[in-house]
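Course exercise 7: structure representation. Students receive a sequence record and must write out the corresponding structure in token form. The form below is the worked example handed out in class, using Phosphate transport system permease protein PstA (312 residues). Read each field label carefully; the graders check that inputs and outputs are placed in the correct fields and that the protein name is recorded exactly as given.

STUDENT ID: A-19
EXERCISE PROTEIN: Phosphate transport system permease protein PstA
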Amino acid sequence: MTVFLGVVVHAVALLVASRVVEGGRAARDRLATTLMYSAFGLALIPLISLLWTVLQYGLERFDGYFLSYTMRGVYGGMDAGGVYHAIIGTVEITAFATLISVPVGLLTAVYLVEYGPSRLGRAITFFVDVMTGIPSIVAGLFAYALFALLFGPGVRMGVVGSVALAVLMIPVVVRASEEMLKLVPNELREAAYALGVPKWLTIVKVVLRTAAAGLVTGVMLAIARVIGETAPLLITVGVVDSANFNLFDGRMMTLPVYVFRQYSQGLAPNGVTTINYDRAWAAALTLIIIVMLLFLVARLVSRFFSPKTGRR
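STUDENT ANSWER:
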């Protein structure tokens, strides 16, 4: 707060001085520019602080051994164990949640944008808005209750966690995709219709292709929204110390749950060793790296599928 007040005072001082030398319009422009850059700098402070803290505490434990071993047989303050099983669980559960949510969300957005407003469309928009504000724990309880009806109480499987995450992803995908599809110029649609192209083919070949970069970004935002969720996965997936590659059989570990579990265990039994905290920080760094890699892949995919505009 003190830094922000200092920036405002400095900006006001610049405005007063500029009005004397430059005139009113130039002074207001300088004030707006100063406030904009100041706000940008203030927004970077928590981000840089977060990255620096995670790197500072996470790099100590982050190595090849940590990435390639599980926690099976590790107990107490043993200087052993890794995060391999949590990486497998996170990737598989998130990938399957994406496989569920992206087709549903994208098709819903196409209907809302391309087939015009209707009573059904307004109802869908209302429920999407409601789903956007659903707490993650509620999505976890919903998925657990659904599978408990089919498999009985106490069910814990990776696919249950994927369904819970898909419930959280769908409204994000719908909203992001809807906004991207609205940005496609109507002239492109009309040109395709004038050539006799059916509407469904226009949507597939023209609309979706034009909005490909924005659609991929929207999907990545949805993935980033859920990949760090802990509460729904504690309910639906549970905890395990060994690797499980089967989404449809048994419990799985994920990186957020791994971080939560290690940090909640606190100091080792001898009261001195901080091995649990070290594992938690290293797992948090692993999760950040995975998200960064996903965004890099998304940028490459969007660049490949986006329309090519050649220069003459």
